[in-house]
């Protein structure tokens, strides 16, 4: 680094001071001036919600004179009149401007303390996965994790991007792929089945198809963009049905939108088994044809090498793999 001598810096030493070439003074933490004791701020916050000193003192469990003294001290400290005294307390414009700020301070403080007390003795685990997998597969199962491992506090993040596991990244990830994650620890979780689904309303309107080729006369919902999961042309090819290019009216950006359109009766969706479990179980969607078509890619548990031996990660991984094994059986 190149250094130069800056004589213009406001430093109270007589000897020369060498600093980086840009000669910028060091950043100083701002001093919090005119900050009263917390009890005084609390008295102000409570008084803003009451009509008299008497009722405010009852909430604070102090005398009326104590409340009056604290508020007078605050007004003297800030050089502002906060209340118009009379038969009833009324905020001045200055008091009205400060009241929501002080109230928000106490609300944030109480919420943070409650959160910290809840976390006491627990270990936080940041998990990254795709939005659709988190919403449809992982979230419904998280209560089971809380019951089995109450010591683990999950922070769930969603992203489709590659993860580098830098200091700001999550601790572990669940990714859809072929298992090739160089330099990382990865374990296979599950592989989904792919099949058509339709709402009862659509089948009532169009009738139920008796063979796969009949689907070509139905509105077929399509996904947009490159995707690791096969689309309609691959499914028809797998079952041996030749098709011309599909007539499309709408392409959907992600899995969740496609499933939602199917639920609304707008067409038949090519769904992944892990994304329609609840909808099939409660009858909102119906699986069409029991033709096996396994996804060419699977879900993998991924983390930096070495941390997979940490106790809380072992607990989460074992729970995750057990849930995946059970789900895989249901997909057969």
UniProtKB/TrEMBL annotation:
InterPro entries xref list: LysR-type_TF_proteobact-type, LysR_HTH_N, LysR_subst-bd, WH-like_DNA-bd_sf, WH_DNA-bd_sf
Keyword hit for Transmembrane helix: no
Keywords: DNA-binding, Transcription, Transcription regulation
HTH lysR-type domain ranges (all copies): 36-92
Superkingdom in the source lineage: Bacteria
Listed SUPFAM superfamilies: Periplasmic binding protein-like II, Winged helix' DNA-binding domain
Pfam families in the cross-refs: HTH_1 (PF00126), LysR_substrate (PF03466)
Alphabetical list of NCBIfam families matching this protein: PRK11139.1
Similarity section: Belongs to the LysR transcriptional regulatory family.
Name the record gives this protein: LysR family transcriptional regulator, glycine cleavage system transcriptional activator
């Amino acid at each position: 680094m190149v250094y130069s001598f800056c004589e213009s810096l406001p430093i109270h030493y007589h000897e020369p001071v060498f600093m980086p070439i840009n000669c910028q003074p060091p950043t100083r933490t701002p001093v919090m001036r005119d900050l009263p004791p917390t009890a005084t701020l609390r008295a102000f916050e409570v008084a803003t919600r009451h009509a008299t000193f008497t009722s405010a003192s009852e909430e604070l469990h102090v005398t009326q004179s104590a409340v009056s003294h604290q508020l007078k001290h605050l007004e003297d400290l800030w050089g502002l009149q906060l209340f118009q005294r009379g038969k009833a307390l009324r905020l001045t414009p200055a008091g009205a401007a400060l009241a929501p700020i002080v109230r928000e301070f106490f609300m944030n403080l109480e919420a943070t303390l409650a959160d910290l007390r809840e976390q006491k003795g627990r270990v936080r685990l940041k998990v990254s996965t795709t939005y659709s997998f988190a919403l449809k597969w992982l979230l419904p199962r998280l209560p089971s994790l809380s019951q089995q491992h109450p010591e683990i506090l999950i922070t769930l993040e969603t992203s489709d991007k590659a993860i580098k596991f830098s200091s700001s990244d999550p601790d572990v990830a669940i990714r859809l792929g072929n298992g090739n994650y160089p330099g990382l620890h990865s374990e296979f979780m599950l592989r989904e089945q792919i099949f058509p689904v339709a709402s009862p309303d659509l089948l009532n309107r169009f009738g139920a198809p008796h063979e796969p080729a009949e689907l070509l006369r139905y509105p077929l919902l399509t996904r947009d963009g490159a995707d690791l999961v096969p689309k309609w042309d691959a499914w028809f090819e797998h079952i041996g049905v030749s098709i011309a290019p599909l007539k499309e009216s709408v392409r959907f950006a992600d899995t969740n939108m496609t499933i939602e359109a199917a639920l609304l009766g707008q067409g038949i969706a090519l769904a992944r088994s892990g994304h329609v479990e609840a909808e099939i179980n409660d009858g909102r969607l119906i699986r069409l044809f029991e033709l096996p078509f396994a996804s060419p890619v699977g879900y993998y548990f991924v983390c930096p090498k070495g941390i997979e031996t940490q106790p809380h990660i072992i607990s989460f991984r074992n729970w995750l793999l057990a849930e995946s094994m059970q789900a895989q059986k249901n997909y057969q």
